[in-house]
Amino acid sequence: MQPHASGTAMDDAELRRRRADYHREWTTGTDRFFHPKAESCPWCGGKDIGFRIRLTDTRQCKPGTFDMDECASCGHIFQNPMLTGTGLAYYYRDSYDGLGRDHYGSVAEYSSSAHRRRVRLFDGMPRPGQWLDVGARHGHFCREARKFLPGTKFWALDQSPEIVHGQQRGWVDFAGQTPLTEFAERHAGEFDVVSMIHYLERTASPQSELDAARRLLRDGGAVLIESVNPASRFARLHGRFWYCWMAPQNLHLIPHRNMCRLLTERGFEVVRVQRGPANKPFDNLAALLTALNHHLPAAKSWPWLSRAVRPAERWLRRAVMALASPALGLAFVLDLLLHVPTSRGRGGNTYRIVAVARLRSDSPW
Questions:
Q1: What is the CATH number of domain 107-237+245-282+338-357?
Q2: Full-prediction pTM beyond 0.85?
Q3: Inter-residue contact 131 to 153 (CB < 8 Å)
Protein backbone atom coordinates (compact mmCIF):
# COMPACT_ATOMS: atom_id res chain seq x y z
CA MET A 1 0.00 0.00 0.00
CA GLN A 2 2.89 2.40 0.51
CA PRO A 3 2.76 4.77 -2.45
CA HIS A 4 5.63 4.41 -4.86
CA ALA A 5 8.05 2.57 -2.63
CA SER A 6 9.88 1.68 -5.82
CA GLY A 7 9.90 2.91 -9.37
CA THR A 8 11.76 3.26 -12.62
CA ALA A 9 15.37 4.36 -12.19
CA MET A 10 16.27 7.86 -13.44
CA ASP A 11 19.62 9.40 -14.18
CA ASP A 12 20.30 12.89 -12.84
CA ALA A 13 19.66 14.61 -16.16
CA GLU A 14 16.27 12.94 -16.60
CA LEU A 15 15.33 13.76 -13.03
CA ARG A 16 16.19 17.42 -13.53
CA ARG A 17 14.19 17.55 -16.77
CA ARG A 18 11.13 15.98 -15.19
CA ARG A 19 11.39 18.23 -12.14
CA ALA A 20 11.57 21.28 -14.39
CA ASP A 21 8.50 20.10 -16.32
CA TYR A 22 6.47 19.52 -13.15
CA HIS A 23 7.60 22.82 -11.66
CA ARG A 24 6.71 24.75 -14.82
CA GLU A 25 3.29 23.16 -15.06
CA TRP A 26 2.47 23.88 -11.42
CA THR A 27 3.76 27.47 -11.39
CA THR A 28 1.96 28.30 -14.64
CA GLY A 29 -1.18 28.37 -12.54
CA THR A 30 -3.59 25.74 -11.25
CA ASP A 31 -6.86 27.49 -12.12
CA ARG A 32 -6.92 25.47 -15.34
CA PHE A 33 -6.82 22.29 -13.22
CA PHE A 34 -10.32 22.86 -11.85
CA HIS A 35 -13.83 23.45 -13.11
CA PRO A 36 -15.91 26.18 -11.44
CA LYS A 37 -17.33 25.10 -8.09
CA ALA A 38 -20.68 23.35 -8.50
CA GLU A 39 -23.74 24.71 -6.70
CA SER A 40 -25.82 21.55 -7.07
CA CYS A 41 -25.37 17.77 -6.94
CA PRO A 42 -24.09 16.34 -10.24
CA TRP A 43 -26.08 13.18 -9.58
CA CYS A 44 -29.60 14.31 -8.64
CA GLY A 45 -29.42 18.06 -9.15
CA GLY A 46 -30.24 18.75 -5.51
CA LYS A 47 -29.17 22.10 -4.06
CA ASP A 48 -28.67 20.87 -0.49
CA ILE A 49 -24.98 20.04 -0.72
CA GLY A 50 -22.44 20.50 2.03
CA PHE A 51 -18.74 20.12 2.71
CA ARG A 52 -17.70 16.58 3.70
CA ILE A 53 -13.89 16.48 3.88
CA ARG A 54 -10.71 18.12 2.55
CA LEU A 55 -8.11 15.76 1.13
CA THR A 56 -4.58 15.83 -0.20
CA ASP A 57 -2.76 13.54 -2.60
CA THR A 58 -1.54 11.06 0.01
CA ARG A 59 -0.53 8.52 -2.63
CA GLN A 60 2.02 10.42 -4.73
CA CYS A 61 2.13 13.48 -2.45
CA LYS A 62 1.73 15.90 -5.34
CA PRO A 63 0.73 19.41 -4.24
CA GLY A 64 -2.86 20.57 -3.92
CA THR A 65 -5.98 20.13 -1.78
CA PHE A 66 -9.30 18.64 -2.85
CA ASP A 67 -12.70 19.21 -1.26
CA MET A 68 -15.36 16.52 -1.27
CA ASP A 69 -18.99 17.64 -0.91
CA GLU A 70 -21.99 15.48 -0.05
CA CYS A 71 -25.59 15.76 -1.23
CA ALA A 72 -28.13 15.62 1.59
CA SER A 73 -30.82 14.42 -0.84
CA CYS A 74 -29.19 11.37 -2.43
CA GLY A 75 -25.95 10.83 -0.47
CA HIS A 76 -23.72 11.31 -3.50
CA ILE A 77 -20.18 12.45 -2.62
CA PHE A 78 -18.21 14.36 -5.22
CA GLN A 79 -15.08 16.43 -5.69
CA ASN A 80 -15.99 20.11 -5.69
CA PRO A 81 -14.51 21.93 -7.50
CA MET A 82 -13.82 19.03 -9.82
CA LEU A 83 -10.58 18.48 -11.70
CA THR A 84 -10.55 19.21 -15.42
CA GLY A 85 -8.97 16.88 -17.95
CA THR A 86 -5.76 18.90 -17.62
CA GLY A 87 -5.79 18.53 -13.86
CA LEU A 88 -6.47 14.81 -14.01
CA ALA A 89 -3.63 14.36 -16.49
CA TYR A 90 -1.26 16.11 -14.08
CA TYR A 91 -2.22 13.90 -11.13
CA TYR A 92 -2.39 10.68 -13.16
CA ARG A 93 1.07 11.21 -14.63
CA ASP A 94 3.60 8.70 -13.28
CA SER A 95 0.88 6.99 -11.26
CA TYR A 96 0.25 3.83 -13.30
CA ASP A 97 2.90 4.31 -15.96
CA GLY A 98 6.20 6.16 -16.17
CA LEU A 99 7.82 6.32 -12.74
CA GLY A 100 4.91 4.49 -11.12
CA ARG A 101 4.73 1.60 -13.58
CA ASP A 102 6.81 -0.91 -11.63
CA HIS A 103 5.19 -0.10 -8.30
CA TYR A 104 1.66 -0.42 -9.65
CA GLY A 105 2.57 -3.64 -11.45
CA SER A 106 3.94 -5.20 -8.27
CA VAL A 107 0.83 -4.23 -6.26
CA ALA A 108 -1.52 -5.48 -8.98
CA GLU A 109 0.07 -8.92 -8.83
CA TYR A 110 -1.63 -9.39 -5.43
CA SER A 111 -5.11 -8.86 -6.92
CA SER A 112 -5.52 -12.30 -8.52
CA SER A 113 -7.98 -13.55 -5.90
CA ALA A 114 -10.17 -10.46 -6.32
CA HIS A 115 -10.13 -10.94 -10.10
CA ARG A 116 -11.27 -14.53 -9.68
CA ARG A 117 -14.18 -13.45 -7.46
CA ARG A 118 -15.26 -10.97 -10.09
CA VAL A 119 -15.29 -13.65 -12.77
CA ARG A 120 -17.25 -16.01 -10.50
CA LEU A 121 -20.14 -13.55 -10.53
CA PHE A 122 -20.82 -14.95 -13.99
CA ASP A 123 -20.92 -18.61 -12.90
CA GLY A 124 -23.96 -20.31 -14.37
CA MET A 125 -24.29 -17.72 -17.10
CA PRO A 126 -23.48 -18.18 -20.77
CA ARG A 127 -19.79 -17.88 -21.57
CA PRO A 128 -19.23 -14.45 -23.14
CA GLY A 129 -17.71 -14.33 -26.58
CA GLN A 130 -16.47 -10.73 -26.35
CA TRP A 131 -15.57 -9.00 -23.07
CA LEU A 132 -14.49 -5.36 -22.80
CA ASP A 133 -12.65 -4.19 -19.67
CA VAL A 134 -12.72 -0.40 -19.30
CA GLY A 135 -10.03 1.32 -17.25
CA ALA A 136 -7.94 -1.81 -17.55
CA ARG A 137 -4.60 -0.29 -16.43
CA HIS A 138 -1.95 -2.89 -17.37
CA GLY A 139 -4.47 -5.64 -18.16
CA HIS A 140 -4.09 -7.79 -15.01
CA PHE A 141 -7.82 -8.51 -14.77
CA CYS A 142 -8.01 -9.74 -18.36
CA ARG A 143 -4.92 -11.88 -17.84
CA GLU A 144 -6.57 -13.63 -14.87
CA ALA A 145 -10.09 -13.82 -16.32
CA ARG A 146 -9.02 -15.55 -19.53
CA LYS A 147 -7.74 -18.49 -17.44
CA PHE A 148 -11.36 -19.22 -16.49
CA LEU A 149 -12.97 -18.23 -19.78
CA PRO A 150 -11.06 -19.97 -22.57
CA GLY A 151 -12.31 -18.87 -25.94
CA THR A 152 -13.47 -15.46 -24.74
CA LYS A 153 -11.89 -12.52 -26.54
CA PHE A 154 -10.80 -9.80 -24.14
CA TRP A 155 -10.69 -6.19 -25.22
CA ALA A 156 -9.26 -3.50 -22.96
CA LEU A 157 -9.38 0.29 -22.85
CA ASP A 158 -7.20 2.60 -20.80
CA GLN A 159 -5.70 6.04 -21.22
CA SER A 160 -2.25 4.71 -20.33
CA PRO A 161 0.03 3.25 -23.03
CA GLU A 162 0.69 0.39 -20.61
CA ILE A 163 -2.44 -1.34 -21.89
CA VAL A 164 -0.80 -1.60 -25.33
CA HIS A 165 2.06 -3.42 -23.63
CA GLY A 166 -0.58 -5.69 -22.09
CA GLN A 167 -1.62 -6.71 -25.58
CA GLN A 168 2.00 -7.31 -26.53
CA ARG A 169 2.35 -9.57 -23.48
CA GLY A 170 -0.69 -11.55 -24.58
CA TRP A 171 -2.82 -10.51 -21.59
CA VAL A 172 -5.50 -8.95 -23.79
CA ASP A 173 -6.54 -9.66 -27.35
CA PHE A 174 -7.20 -6.06 -28.34
CA ALA A 175 -6.08 -2.87 -26.59
CA GLY A 176 -6.96 0.76 -27.12
CA GLN A 177 -6.57 4.19 -25.56
CA THR A 178 -9.73 5.64 -27.09
CA PRO A 179 -12.21 7.26 -24.65
CA LEU A 180 -15.15 4.96 -23.98
CA THR A 181 -17.75 7.33 -25.36
CA GLU A 182 -15.89 7.50 -28.69
CA PHE A 183 -15.20 3.76 -28.73
CA ALA A 184 -18.94 3.06 -28.31
CA GLU A 185 -19.75 4.94 -31.50
CA ARG A 186 -17.71 2.47 -33.55
CA HIS A 187 -18.46 -0.80 -31.70
CA ALA A 188 -22.12 -0.62 -30.77
CA GLY A 189 -23.70 -3.98 -29.91
CA GLU A 190 -20.46 -5.98 -30.20
CA PHE A 191 -19.92 -7.13 -26.59
CA ASP A 192 -21.43 -9.66 -24.22
CA VAL A 193 -19.85 -8.14 -21.10
CA VAL A 194 -18.48 -4.71 -20.27
CA SER A 195 -16.59 -4.51 -16.96
CA MET A 196 -15.94 -1.19 -15.21
CA ILE A 197 -13.79 -1.95 -12.17
CA HIS A 198 -13.14 1.21 -10.16
CA TYR A 199 -13.66 3.21 -13.32
CA LEU A 200 -16.93 5.12 -13.03
CA GLU A 201 -15.90 6.96 -9.85
CA ARG A 202 -12.93 8.38 -11.78
CA THR A 203 -14.93 9.85 -14.65
CA ALA A 204 -16.41 13.33 -14.99
CA SER A 205 -19.84 11.94 -15.94
CA PRO A 206 -20.56 8.36 -14.79
CA GLN A 207 -23.99 8.61 -16.41
CA SER A 208 -22.52 9.24 -19.87
CA GLU A 209 -20.00 6.45 -19.42
CA LEU A 210 -22.76 4.00 -18.48
CA ASP A 211 -24.76 5.09 -21.53
CA ALA A 212 -21.72 4.25 -23.65
CA ALA A 213 -21.45 0.83 -22.01
CA ARG A 214 -25.10 0.15 -22.82
CA ARG A 215 -24.51 0.99 -26.50
CA LEU A 216 -21.64 -1.48 -26.62
CA LEU A 217 -23.68 -4.38 -25.24
CA ARG A 218 -25.79 -6.80 -27.18
CA ASP A 219 -29.35 -7.26 -25.89
CA GLY A 220 -29.03 -9.60 -22.96
CA GLY A 221 -25.39 -8.61 -22.40
CA ALA A 222 -24.20 -7.64 -18.94
CA VAL A 223 -22.25 -4.87 -17.27
CA LEU A 224 -20.05 -5.54 -14.25
CA ILE A 225 -19.49 -2.54 -12.01
CA GLU A 226 -17.17 -2.40 -9.03
CA SER A 227 -16.98 0.82 -7.05
CA VAL A 228 -15.98 2.29 -3.71
CA ASN A 229 -18.69 2.11 -1.06
CA PRO A 230 -18.94 5.61 0.49
CA ALA A 231 -21.13 4.20 3.29
CA SER A 232 -18.19 2.26 4.74
CA ARG A 233 -17.81 3.00 8.45
CA PHE A 234 -14.07 3.37 7.89
CA ALA A 235 -14.64 6.46 5.75
CA ARG A 236 -15.53 8.41 8.88
CA LEU A 237 -13.34 6.44 11.27
CA HIS A 238 -10.13 7.08 9.31
CA GLY A 239 -11.12 10.50 7.97
CA ARG A 240 -8.74 11.92 5.38
CA PHE A 241 -6.48 8.87 5.65
CA TRP A 242 -9.14 6.41 4.44
CA TYR A 243 -7.35 4.88 1.47
CA CYS A 244 -10.47 4.53 -0.67
CA TRP A 245 -10.85 8.29 -1.04
CA MET A 246 -8.03 7.90 -3.60
CA ALA A 247 -7.75 11.66 -3.93
CA PRO A 248 -7.61 13.29 -6.32
CA GLN A 249 -8.40 10.52 -8.80
CA ASN A 250 -11.85 9.62 -7.44
CA LEU A 251 -14.21 12.34 -8.57
CA HIS A 252 -17.40 10.60 -7.42
CA LEU A 253 -18.25 8.21 -4.59
CA ILE A 254 -21.59 6.71 -5.54
CA PRO A 255 -23.87 4.94 -3.02
CA HIS A 256 -24.84 1.50 -4.31
CA ARG A 257 -28.56 2.36 -4.24
CA ASN A 258 -27.88 5.31 -6.55
CA MET A 259 -25.97 3.06 -8.93
CA CYS A 260 -28.75 0.48 -8.98
CA ARG A 261 -31.33 3.20 -9.69
CA LEU A 262 -29.23 4.62 -12.52
CA LEU A 263 -28.82 1.18 -14.07
CA THR A 264 -32.58 0.65 -14.02
CA GLU A 265 -33.17 4.05 -15.61
CA ARG A 266 -30.65 3.22 -18.35
CA GLY A 267 -32.44 0.02 -19.41
CA PHE A 268 -30.64 -2.52 -17.25
CA GLU A 269 -31.97 -5.06 -14.79
CA VAL A 270 -29.80 -5.57 -11.72
CA VAL A 271 -29.37 -9.31 -11.22
CA ARG A 272 -26.52 -9.56 -8.69
CA VAL A 273 -25.25 -7.26 -5.96
CA GLN A 274 -22.27 -7.95 -3.72
CA ARG A 275 -21.60 -5.68 -0.77
CA GLY A 276 -19.99 -7.45 2.18
CA PRO A 277 -18.35 -10.18 0.04
CA ALA A 278 -16.75 -7.48 -2.13
CA ASN A 279 -14.90 -5.96 0.84
CA LYS A 280 -11.12 -5.63 0.52
CA PRO A 281 -9.50 -6.33 3.90
CA PHE A 282 -6.99 -3.50 4.06
CA ASP A 283 -8.72 -0.48 5.65
CA ASN A 284 -6.67 -0.22 8.84
CA LEU A 285 -3.34 -1.16 7.29
CA ALA A 286 -3.84 1.20 4.35
CA ALA A 287 -4.94 4.06 6.62
CA LEU A 288 -1.83 3.71 8.77
CA LEU A 289 0.45 3.56 5.73
CA THR A 290 -1.34 6.54 4.19
CA ALA A 291 -0.90 8.58 7.39
CA LEU A 292 2.78 7.68 7.61
CA ASN A 293 3.32 8.55 3.98
CA HIS A 294 1.62 11.91 4.51
CA HIS A 295 3.62 12.93 7.58
CA LEU A 296 7.04 11.47 6.75
CA PRO A 297 9.54 12.74 4.17
CA ALA A 298 9.11 11.22 0.73
CA ALA A 299 10.73 7.89 -0.03
CA LYS A 300 12.57 9.35 -3.02
CA SER A 301 13.24 12.71 -4.63
CA TRP A 302 10.25 12.52 -6.94
CA PRO A 303 10.33 15.23 -9.63
CA TRP A 304 7.00 16.77 -8.53
CA LEU A 305 8.44 17.62 -5.11
CA SER A 306 9.58 21.21 -4.54
CA ARG A 307 13.07 20.02 -3.54
CA ALA A 308 15.18 16.88 -3.32
CA VAL A 309 14.87 14.65 -0.24
CA ARG A 310 17.89 14.97 2.04
CA PRO A 311 19.82 11.87 3.23
CA ALA A 312 18.84 12.56 6.85
CA GLU A 313 15.18 12.62 5.86
CA ARG A 314 15.49 9.27 4.15
CA TRP A 315 17.04 7.76 7.27
CA LEU A 316 14.24 9.27 9.38
CA ARG A 317 11.63 7.67 7.15
CA ARG A 318 13.31 4.27 7.34
CA ALA A 319 13.64 4.47 11.11
CA VAL A 320 9.99 5.43 11.65
CA MET A 321 8.75 2.76 9.26
CA ALA A 322 10.81 0.15 11.13
CA LEU A 323 9.43 1.31 14.48
CA ALA A 324 5.91 1.24 13.04
CA SER A 325 6.21 -2.35 11.78
CA PRO A 326 4.51 -3.92 14.87
CA ALA A 327 1.57 -1.53 14.51
CA LEU A 328 1.39 -2.30 10.79
CA GLY A 329 1.36 -6.02 11.54
CA LEU A 330 -1.40 -5.56 14.09
CA ALA A 331 -3.44 -3.51 11.61
CA PHE A 332 -3.05 -6.27 9.02
CA VAL A 333 -4.29 -8.93 11.44
CA LEU A 334 -7.18 -6.72 12.52
CA ASP A 335 -8.23 -6.25 8.90
CA LEU A 336 -8.30 -10.01 8.36
CA LEU A 337 -10.34 -10.58 11.52
CA LEU A 338 -12.84 -7.84 10.70
CA HIS A 339 -13.20 -9.14 7.15
CA VAL A 340 -14.95 -12.27 8.43
CA PRO A 341 -18.08 -10.51 9.79
CA THR A 342 -17.89 -7.77 7.15
CA SER A 343 -17.94 -10.24 4.26
CA ARG A 344 -21.12 -11.80 5.66
CA GLY A 345 -22.94 -8.49 5.92
CA ARG A 346 -23.70 -5.49 3.76
CA GLY A 347 -20.87 -3.18 4.78
CA GLY A 348 -17.36 -3.09 3.46
CA ASN A 349 -15.40 -0.64 1.38
CA THR A 350 -16.48 -1.90 -2.05
CA TYR A 351 -19.57 -3.14 -3.87
CA ARG A 352 -20.07 -5.08 -7.09
CA ILE A 353 -23.11 -5.09 -9.35
CA VAL A 354 -23.99 -7.22 -12.37
CA ALA A 355 -26.81 -5.84 -14.49
CA VAL A 356 -28.27 -7.15 -17.72
CA ALA A 357 -29.30 -4.99 -20.67
CA ARG A 358 -32.97 -5.42 -21.58
CA LEU A 359 -33.50 -8.68 -19.79
CA ARG A 360 -35.74 -10.80 -22.02
CA SER A 361 -38.16 -13.42 -20.78
CA ASP A 362 -36.16 -16.14 -22.50
CA SER A 363 -32.76 -14.81 -21.44
CA PRO A 364 -30.57 -17.38 -19.60
CA TRP A 365 -29.22 -14.56 -17.42
A1: 3.40.50.150
A2: yes
A3: yes
